[in-house]
Design a protein that fits this description.
The radius of gyration is 30 Å and the shape is globular. Helix 4 crosses helix 9 and helix 18 runs antiparallel to helix 19. It has 3 domains: 303 residues, no CATH class; 265 residues, 3-Layer(aba) Sandwich (Aminopeptidase), CATH 3.40.630; 196 residues, no CATH class. Helix content is 42%, strand content 20%. It is built from 22 helices and 24 strands. Strand 8 and strand 9 form a beta hairpin. The strands form 4 sheets. It has a 15-stranded mixed β-sheet that branches. It has a 5-stranded antiparallel β-sheet with strand order 15-16-21-18-19, with no helix packed on it. A two-stranded antiparallel sheet has the order 8-9.
């Protein structure tokens, strides 16, 4: 084959091939996010049908049904009736559960009276370890929960039907938990006391943090190797990787799966995370749930559960595996030690490149430039994404504010992805052209300054701009140093991979596996040797496959945490920079890279502008509103309150309109440090919160019973003592309350019931200050009504609730004043 070393040949073939590889990779990653078409109800009864599953959602997600509400009781009863009619053995587990949450000053206890629905599809041998499917049927207030977690409930009902005629070797248990939103309390109650909990061999949990997208396997239990191997063989178009489980393990939130995983039970945890604007919102309706997401979730889970239920033994292992989906719709699961093989190959190529390199002064400068290539790429992408995001108004974006930007999330993701690609390709031009160092450094400084144009002064953006300017100045034009630059970049990639392999091998799919492709491309494209078309084509194929993998990760990361932390894109796109490096020297001169970068950056600007200036459809993405009525009858204080960070026109009118300017106010009894509040007229409210104090002479305990008004859905209690109090009990169980002198302990109880809650502690511990707040659904009937909401405004979180405050002081031997 003819050589491609002439400048004409290089210009004609290599840069177009590289750009084509990038385009193919981006298209592959983007198209892989699509959900499959839902299967109709007419397909075989042994298959999963999203159409059949979604029929259940008409009653599951008909209205919000938080724990303790009448609506939750209706959903529970319908679940029981449906499962009984389907022939399953059904029971309701009623009990109490409590769990510690938070840390430091935010630490407290969550508790609830729970009602779990437990259904069993019996197997031939009832003594074998059972398979457990789990989803929660409760929702947050004001959200019908079609996705979170109506989707999981509906998928489980469809799976229970599909398994009816299988020759099951073991029981399949369907657990519909209560009070997941209150702190995983239904799951805690089941695994703490239910007789079936000791027989569970494998757990499959179904969750949602949005209303679209494919089901992601984002977490596994311990000893996952064998179970992952089984899943990877059975699942069509699986999605997931071990990195997400590692990251999720260190996040403050959890799912019901957290409970069995902490007990060492193997299992898999699935969720959809697309369209996160619907998370815990009134728009989480059946109409807005993607049927393709339901289909993909069911198609992942049914074959696995069927295999587990019909097999004589469950897949067990003491080893953990590293896993990831790959371009093409398949998943691999490999042992942890496989990472050492990747490092060995990378080391071999490092030796080859070192033998090619020239170690004179210029060569060593090239090595330093290659080492700097990593931070240059990381920081450049982080700077570009941060600046663009802040200019779009996303500097303080959350799921509550900046809803217009969140509504355009897919467009935003595409724009930020194009921007990241354009920045990296521009770095290729910088590497090839020394004359570009001054304008590049100036542009970086300007970008750092622009980060402060919106959202206030941005120190991080300014520092990023300075660092990128310095690195750009030193890296410009160093591509001419050929193998030395590659050696430096490859060395950094190898060191990163080695650190990951030793400390956190779960991160290997993103931070180690791409080293294989980088090493292969560096070996295929030597800087100072004749190249055949076959080598260039092989390098292009490897580059395209590796970039498809990396871009896929970028989309997943941005979907998961990008709305609040868009700079996360810098991590995967650094691999694009390293993969691009061997191509820069071949395509001598930076003009082609500069043109490609300019086109990409202009396209990114257009897409981001569309995300910014396209007003959201208020019918689909309505404005969130939140106003509470807070009454303190003992002190004759009455307020209208909102905890939203920014007040809309409706919220201002609801707080009192022009007659009352909202002010920031703390409400300690509700754990609210600063909310918008206006004074309201005194009215009659249900209540009050009552405190019954007594003394147990046999145990020497002070006893406090807190009784909430009828209809209370949530009771918040705060306690403080001047000394550490040992052996505090909540409902007869030890509780981590009053364990720090002078610090408020927090308790939140869902569905407290007419008997209230009982607290006990040694009476000789000294006085204890007590504050309580009882939350009742509904606006007080005697208060001035709220302004009418249009179809474009919906209540959110605890909105429209009435909160009644109370306080007392319990002193020595149960006395009070």
């Amino acid at each position: 084959m003819s050589a491609l070393r002439s400048s004409r040949g290089v210009a004609r073939y290599t840069l177009p091939l590289l750009l084509l590889s990038i385009v193919i990779a981006a298209w592959s990653a983007w198209s892989a996010q699509k959900t499959p078409p839902p299967k109709p109800a007419t397909i075989a009864t042994t298959e999963f049908s999203a159409a059949r599953a979604m029929q259940h959602l008409s009653w599951i997600a008909a209205e919000p049904h938080p724990t303790g509400s009448a609506a939750a009781a209706r959903v529970r009863d319908q679940l029981v009736n449906h499962l009984q009619q389907a022939g399953l053995q059904v029971s309701v587990q009623r009990g109490q559960a409590a769990a510690e949450y938070g840390s430091g000053d935010g630490r407290g206890v969550r508790a609830a009276n729970v009602e779990n629905v437990v259904a069993v599809l019996p197997g031939r041998d009832r003594s074998l370890p059972a398979v457990l499917l789990m989803a929660h049927y409760d929702t947050v207030p004001h959200s019908p929960g079609a996705a979170d977690d109506g989707l999981g409930v509906a998928v489980m009902l469809e799976i229970s039907r599909a398994l009816q005629n299988d020759l099951r070797q073991r029981d399949v248990v369907f657990l519909f938990t209560d009070a997941e939103e209150a702190g995983l309390l239904g799951a805690r109650a089941f695994f703490a006391s239910h007789p079936l909990s000791s027989r569970i061999g494998t757990v499959v949990n179904l969750e949602a943090r949005g209303s679209s997208g494919r089901a992601v396997l984002f977490e596994t239990g311990p000893g996952n190797a064998a179970l992952l191997g089984t899943f990877a063989k059975l699942a069509p178009q699986p999605l997931g990787n071990s990195l997400t489980g590692f990251v999720y393990r260190y996040m403050p939130n959890g799912t019901d799966f957290t409970v069995p995983a902490q007990k060492g039970i193997p299992g898999l945890n699935f969720a959809i995370i697309g369209s996160q604007i619907d998370y815990h919102a009134a728009t989480a309706s059946v109409a807005n749930l993607d049927p393709g997401s339901v289909q993909h979730m069911g198609a992942q889970v049914l074959p696995l559960v069927r295999r587990l239920a019909t097999s004589a033994t469950l897949p067990t292992s003491t080893q953990d595996a590293i896993y990831s989906d790959l371009p093409g719709g398949w998943m691999i699961s490999v042992p942890v030690w496989s990472g050492w093989c990747v490092l060995a190959f990378g080391l071999l190529v490092l030796v080859v490149v070192a033998r090619r390199a020239t170690f004179n002064l210029g060569g060593w400068r090239g090595v330093v430039s290659g080492v700097a290539w990593w931070p240059l790429a990381l920081l450049s992408v982080a700077l570009a994404v941060r600046v663009s995001y802040r200019l779009l108004g996303g500097g303080d974006a959350t799921l509550v504010n900046n809803r217009d930007l969140l509504a355009a999330f897919s467009t935003l993701a595409a724009g930020e992805g194009l921007l990241s690609i354009g920045v990296v390709v521009a770095l290729g031009a910088l590497l090839a052209c020394r004359a570009a160092r001054k304008p590049a450094a100036a542009l970086a400084l300007l970008a750092g300054a622009c980060a402060s144009l919106r959202g206030g002064f941005d120190v991080i953006g300014l520092v990023l701009g300075v660092l990128v300017a310095l690195l750009a100045w030193t890296s410009a034009g160093t591509a001419a140093r050929g193998e030395s630059v590659r050696l430096g970049a490859l060395l950094v990639a190898w060191i990163i991979g080695a650190v990951v392999q030793v400390l956190a091998p779960e991160l290997a799919p993103l931070l180690l596996w791409p080293l294989l492709a980088v090493a292969a491309v560096v070996w295929l494209l030597p800087a100072h040797a004749p190249l055949s078309a076959l080598r260039v084509l092989a390098a292009a194929v490897i580059t395209a496959f590796a970039l498809a993998h990396v871009f896929h990760f970028a989309l997943q990361l941005f979907e998961a945490i990008g709305f609040g932390t868009p700079e996360v894109l810098a991590l995967p796109f650094a691999w694009l920079a390293v993969l691009l490096l061997p191509w820069v020297r071949i395509a001598e001169g930076g003009r082609g890279f500069a043109i490609a970068a300019l086109v990409t950056l202009l396209a990114a600007a257009g897409v981001l502008a569309a995300a910014s200036f396209t007003e959201a459809d208020r019918t689909r993405y309505p404005e969130l509103s939140q106003v509470l009525f807070v009454a303190d009858p003992d002190n004759q204080h009455y307020h209208r309150v909102s905890s939203l960070p920014q007040l809309s026109d409706w919220s201002r009118r609801a707080l009192g309109g022009a007659q009352a300017e909202p002010a920031r106010l703390p409400i300690p009894a509700m754990d609210l440090t600063s909310v918008w509040a206006t004074t309201a007229d005194a009215i009659a409210v249900p209540g009050p919160v009552r405190f019954e104090r007594s003394y147990d002479a046999d145990t020497g305990q002070a006893i406090l019973r807190v009784l909430a008004p009828a209809g209370t859905r949530e009771l918040r209690v705060r306690l403080k003592s001047g000394a550490v109090v040992r052996n505090v009990q909540l409902q007869g169980e030890d509780a981590p309350l009053l364990d720090e002198a002078g610090r408020w302990s927090r308790l939140r109880w869902q569905a407290p019931g007419p008997d209230g809650i009982e607290l006990r502690w040694p009476a000789d511990s000294g006085p204890v200050e007590v504050q309580a707040a009882a939350g009742i659904d509904g606006w007080p009937k005697d208060a001035a009504p709220l302004p009418a909401r249009s179809a474009h405004i919906v209540p959110w979180s605890t909105s429209d609730m009435t909160w009644i405050l109370g306080a007392t002081r319990v002193s020595h031997e149960g006395g009070a004043r």
